[in-house]
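Q: How do we represent a protein-ligand complex in a form that can be generated token by token?
A: Start from the inputs.
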Amino acid sequence: MPITTTAHHQPYTTPRGTASIAFLSVIAYAFIVLFTITTAQETQFIYNGFKGAINNLRLDGLAQIHKNGLLQLTDFTQRKTSHSFYSKPVIFGRNHLSFSTCFVFAMHPQIVNHSGHGIVFVISPSMNLRYTGLAQEYLGLFNSSNNGKPSNHVFGVEFDSQQNAVFKDINDNHVGIDVNSLISADPVPVSYYSDKERVWKTLRLSSGRPMQAWIDYDGVEMSINVTVGPIDESKPSKTLLSKHLDLSPILLDSMYIGFSSATGLVSNSHYLLGWSWNQSGRAQDLDLSKLPSLPKFKSHWSRLNQVIVSVLLSVTSLAVLLIGGVAWVIRRKRYAELEESWEQVYAPHRFSYKDLFTATRGFRDSELLGVGGFGKVYKGVLPSTGVLVAVKRVSHDSRQGMKEFVAEVASMRRLTHRNLVPLLGYCRRKGELLLVYEYMLHGSLDKFLFTRDEKSSKLCWSQRLKIIKGVASALLYLHEEWEQVVLHRDIKASNVLLDAGMNARLGDFGLARLYDHNSDPRTTHLVGTIGYIAPEANRTRVPSTRTDVFAFGMLLFEVGCGRRPIDPQADTPEDVILVDRVYNCWKKGAILEASDPKLEGDYVKEEMELVLRLGLLCSNPKPQERPTMRQVVKYLNHNPLLPEIPSDYNPEGSDFLVEGWGASSSLPSSSFPPSSSETMSIACASSTNSVLQSGR
Ligand SMILES: *[C@@H]1O[C@H](CO)[C@@H](O)[C@H](O)[C@H]1NC(C)=O
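Then emit the structure tokens for the protein with 2-acetamido-2-deoxy-beta-D-glucopyranose bound:
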């Protein structure tokens, strides 16, 4: 280790004067130099690592020098102090208080983010701080009785990685000047100026990484400058802490320089890698390439702790995995769809369940439009396009016949008529089929016809007639004008929807077929809604265009009379069955008496009569005498004129409805007529006597 000795301050000599004066001066100068050599010895040193420095350092407490020259100040032992002093005193005098030092240190916390106490660069009159300095927040410098006393004559620069309220620490990562006291004067958070990036950057003391500190005191200017920086950059051009400070009352002639630190309940391992000191100019730069390397930081936790931590970690990761897995399964299940290879053909008609789920806000009750014929209908907004849709969830237990049905859905998509609700596509899940329709702004016709709230939704006669003509036109299209005959099988006011222009749009077409495809061959299904089912369909279970016409007749009555086909709450028993009521009025020669009182007579008499009489014709118990839809459309346009009701017309045939049902029980009025027009699908085992069969 190089030890050079120089005088700090050159004595003043005058250029004037004689040779003798010059000679004397030279002599005097030589004396002064000599004096300085003997008194202010070893004012400069540099350690690039501390290999072999043991004789020049006084270590106590936890301090030790590793084989590679690394000076370890503290380890994770709790509540201990540690000091490393340069073992010879440094001499300060009235005229040479200046000093410059730089060192490389590292702080490795025992627990990440819970750093222990810091390091203090210290100038002290004694090396025996181990007797007077306490551990923990006292940093091995002072004790509770001498802290703050001017008699200490201790100067320190603390690099503190813990915040202690008692000593007014600003944070857990600060640098402060400690003059006789642990309460630092003007502490600052640790940061350095990056000359490359021209910004101040935070430096974390207890990062475990080596960093450099420069402490320069100018005894003439009486200013102290502290600078820090990462190990891989040269000394920053800007100092971190700069302060006017008169050290003359503190620094005695002979002082010791070194480092003090302490551990607490949680500690840092402190390391010193190199140290340079100079009292006659700037401290020599450390040769970073010669510095010892830090140990590979391993957790100093006990084996037990390690086991506990690893167990905890594995349990946590297992739990995370499990939760993730469950979430994944739930998500998969939630959005699971059924899709088979044969469906690829229909891919363009398919909606993803996830989209429909999002569209209907998870099929929330608030989005429920109604409980329709085959399931619940929800309002939705398609996430991709923002298009309003109605999504019908049809429960479908059997996969049998699904192929045919999907084929039919695909073909139903091709059914386009201005009076049909457009079917946009479908989606299939286990036990469930979802049909996506265009959303109809005004909802279903029955709400307008049967509502008690008269103001909001009264349909005037011209609107009603337009609706009737629209439905008739749609049915004609289904029966005769498309490439194959499509039976609706569930015509009723609640299946007639009204679009933004109050045009009638027939919905739910073709759906009844689902039950045929789904059916067990040993059972037959009666599809339709009580009150709308033609008598012969009750017997034979064979739907036809004529059974559709029968139901259309009922729809005509509903629109004309503003009543449901069966009204258990009617004032008189004769009025319960709507067709009987109309028939009786007709027989009396006063068919208009059956008209909807809500219209208050505000209708074209001929048209009302036409509608009601056409209703009677359509609901003729003899199927072969009912008109076809083509004829119906023509009659509605008065071309040709409506034929007379046949003299043998007898609506008695419909009585069986009530008899048949009434025989088993009187239907609860709350559910019958169905408030939202539930479709009754009655599966009757053909081998047993059903109520319907016995009723006949
Ligand atoms: C504190 O330190 C002073 C010396 O500065 C010493 O005289 C005193 O005994 C110490 N007190 C305790 C409590 O250690």
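The chain has a mean pLDDT of 82. Residues 132, 143, 145-146 surround 2-acetamido-2-deoxy-beta-D-glucopyranose (CB under 6 Å).
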